[in-house]
Specification:
single chain; mainly alpha; 72% helix
């Protein structure tokens, strides 16, 4: 086993040495591709000798090819490497540089994915205000694209984030804005989800009367039409005061574990259609 391990280490070192020799050459997408590949071969532990040439070469590529997709991949993998090892400032730095590449390309979908990755790092740091900033960034892109479905989804996600950090009034405001947009889109399921999420916020704030008022309103609309929502509403109504509410059946509508509700954005630019 030691022989195999030594061989793998020698192979990785050979690739790093080859990369170092390329530093004096003109940076290219091929170099960025190699950097991205080398991050996948990174040792399990912390190895500054491994990281240094990768960071240096990525810097050089960025100086001449700031919109390189291969470079964006290298930055993403660098961010994942550092995040997995708890080096969050370095992970944030790499994540912001990935975002800069996609912004340079005016690629809103890829920018959203970069913001989602950044949000995971910020959450690991406990910097929830930055997680909210990432969601705001995606919301701005949805607005720029005039994607009303995406706007409604991200408003709902921001409502979930506000509820998570205990800002109940702000959460209700976001959910009500999302509800109004779902009403405009004639999306009855989206309207029902917003009502239920507001009720969950009221329950978390200890306002059982306001929660039940919302729940009874939406239950009357769901019975016979939306069994999943109706069952969840009935479970919430049956939950005794002071006990935890049942888990939400809509993980895509604001994910409290850290992901963004990105699949709510179709990725189309309504201004061009």
């Amino acid at each position: 086993m030691n022989g195999i391990g030594d061989g793998a280490q020698q192979f990785r070192q050979h690739l790093v040495d080859a990369l170092c020799e390329m530093i004096t050459d003109e940076p290219s997408d091929a170099v960025a591709d190699l950097v991205a590949y080398l991050w996948l071969l990174a040792p399990e532990g912390d190895d500054s000798d491994w990281c240094r040439p990768l960071l240096l070469m990525a810097d050089q590529v960025a100086a001449t090819l700031p919109a390189s997709l291969a470079l964006a991949t290298a930055f993403r993998r660098g961010a994942e490497f550092f995040r997995a090892r708890g080096h969050y400032p370095l992970a944030v730095s790499q994540g912001l540089r990935e975002l800069a590449v996609h912004r340079a390309r005016d690629d809103r979908i890829s920018s959203g994915a970069a913001l989602q990755s950044l949000a995971v790092t910020y959450r690991a740091q406990g910097r929830m205000h930055r997680v909210v900033d990432c969601a705001d960034g995606i919301l701005e892109d949805c607005i720029a694209c005039r994607d009303e479905t995406g706007i409604a989804s991200m408003l709902g996600h921001l409502g979930c984030l506000m509820a998570e950090v205990g800002r109940h009034s702000a959460a209700v405001g976001y959910f009500d804005r999302a509800k109004a947009l779902y009403e405009k889109l004639s999306d009855t399921s989206g309207v029902a989800r917003c009502h239920v999420q507001v009720a969950r916020v009221h329950l978390a704030a200890g306002d059982r009367r306001a929660a039940n008022r919302r729940l009874r309103h939406v239950l009357a609309q769901c019975i016979g039409l939306d069994y999943s929502t109706a069952n969840h509403v009935q479970a919430l109504l049956a939950t005794p005061s002071g006990t935890a509410a049942p888990a939400s059946p809509w993980p895509e509508f604001g994910d409290p574990t850290g992901g963004l509700a990105w699949n709510g954005w179709s990725g189309t630019d309504a201004s061009t259609t």
